[in-house]
Amino acid sequence: MKERPARWIPALAGMRGIVAGMAVGAMAVLLVAGTSVSAQETDQQSLSSGAPITLEAEVRNGTAGATVPEGLIVTLQVFDLENTELQRLEGETDASGGVSFGGVIGDEEVTYTLSAAYNEVRFFSDAFISTIDRDGPIHLTIFEATSDPSVIRITGDSSAITPPDDDSGVLRILQVTTFENTSDRAYVGNDPLNTRLTVRLPLPVMAFDLESVHSPGSLVLAPDSRDVYSIIPLMPGIEEYIVTYGILYTTDVFAWSKTYPYPTEIARLLVPDEVSFRPGSDWVQMEDSEVSGVTYARYEMRSILAGETLSGTVADLPPSAGSRSRSLEQTLRDVAFAVVAVALIIAAGFALWWARFRSRGTGDSAAEQEALRSQGDAAVAELARLEDAREAGDISEDEYRDMSAPHRELLRRLLDEEQRR
Fold first, then answer.
1. Where does 149-320 sit in CATH, by number?
2. pLDDT tens digits along 95-143
3. Which of 42, 75, 235, 388 could serve as 136's disulfide partner, Cβ 3.0–4.6 Å?
4. Helices and strands in the chain: count of H runs, count of E runs
5. Is the Cβ–Cβ distance between 86 and 79 less than 8 Å?
């Protein structure tokens, strides 16, 4: 996964503005093992510049009826304002979930973050700044785990097709998907063979070159299905996933198809005015939106069931350099194939006529000659019909080849039979 490319920043800002109802709050601190969860803005003292301080922390379990084990190792990390780690300390919880850190850097321009690994999931607190006066201990919340996918739903999935600006034959898509974990447990996935996989991201068929904007390195391909999953456990509440990807197209149309793995409240598709969209599902066209000076047609669909597929056709795409080359190559190949096919038909017809001429001087019966003539005439007529259908575009080149093969073989057998007479 790549870092966020600069070209997506204006589109991302605009997309956030038009996606009503989506959680667009501050992003939590995300690492490979976990995501930040409800920390409180608390501290027990004002911090003086440069003086070592003691920080008191308290770990809570956010799952109803669950407790914090005594001896849980908690890590305190101290960062400067450029996100460089200055100090790392560890402590263990007591019977009440409390832990004390002594000798902590007390500079006015540092931030502090707590984390703890519990049931193979690492939980993080929000970062807080040392210059803010606080009362009481710093809080870190942990959760019990769940593998039940029924607790997951998508509250919103919005995809914006960026205007095609070249002949690369690639559509670039910006997608914002908001997941909700409706339980009070951390969702850790339900794949026993791939225990790192958590929620599955809904993506169109043929998506490639995926870039995770919200958390680089947090998305992977499942080795068996090739679907894209997060490797970060989903905490209770709402989490936003922002990705960009490309879709290859070879003609001026592309079939859009996306299957949703979880119940989805609303899906949105934004199509720039340079291209058009023909809905294949029950999309509803809404009022147009403008993002970064580009007008987008906006389509919505609500109450999508788990496993349901939304489809449509993106049309009026600019031809790519590759498609123009392929079109020329296909035309030349079609012409060559047609010349060969016509030559074969003429040769077969002449061979049959010559065979019939020779048969007049032999002892063949009239019935045998008539059968030979009927088979050959039917084969030649069918080959001519198939050739017309191929030229009219009613059948493809591959279909023509497959459908004409038995008739060409019949002509060859008849010719061989006549040559043996």
1. 2.60.40.1730
2. 999 999 999 888 778 888 999 999 989 999 988 776 555 567 889 999 9
3. 42
4. 4, 25
5. yes
